[in-house]
Amino acid sequence: IIISGLLPDLFMGLAGLEGPGYRPDLDISRAEYLLVPGNAVTAGGEKIGESPDFAVRANLRNPALVNLGVHDCNSILKTQQVVNQGLRAMEVDLIYNNDPAKPSLLLAHDEVHATDLDLENFLQRFSDKIDFLWLDIKNINKESNRHILEYLERLDVAYKLRGRALVESDDAPGLALFADKGWQTSIYLGWKEIARAVRSGAIDEVAARIERQVRENGIGGLSYPLVLDPQVQQYLMPRLPAGTKNYSWKPTWFYSDPDLADKAAHYGHIPRLLVEGGSPFNLEPTRLKTPSAEGH
Length: 296
Fold this sequence. Notes:
It contains ten helices and nine strands.
């Protein structure tokens, strides 16, 4: 079977044009795709069962991977690809825009790359396809947090966001207001600071400071690159309140990795672990990071 004849359903699915004539079971980017992999080959002769996209669907069916989500869903195109594959947990980067005429949270990793896509537009399109949304808000602080909270509270009325969202920032005092209002919160830990403290012997001092930030501001979790997990478990978690959660990401793991379940098996204590989407049908290049660039 040659998949070229299925291209109309693929393109309709990627574009979100799921109208008359569209069949998700013939759309190779969707979890509902049912063509028997043993009989299906691409126009180039590759067995679909050996393709990365098939590995994504296999990983989706694996109950050991229910804690995984997709990193950096900052565009309509990437998010559409992610939801087409059946993935329902994702992370977005957000910049607060304090324009008096229209304050908003823009989907962007930094102000240089910000577009006019904001969180409200994003939710209008994808809210019913998301079970968990990690909100990495880059510019929370004591001056902006009330405005950001008002914006999120308004979206919560429309989309019931609070119970399925995580608010993350590196500003612990800025997060306190969100924690007081019942939002799940997590403080971002810079990997360079922790690694430097371990090497210099100052980790106890850093751990004590993080403990104070968590306790004084009522923060519910720590978020950090997976490379730091041994240090977090050894030096930080024993000091923190019971129930403090761990959130992490691994930018060099992909949802299409055939061995993803084996790699993730050691991290069942992390309720949400972000990896990259990864699919041969991705039209948007993935922002790859080296192991030494464990930023978020």
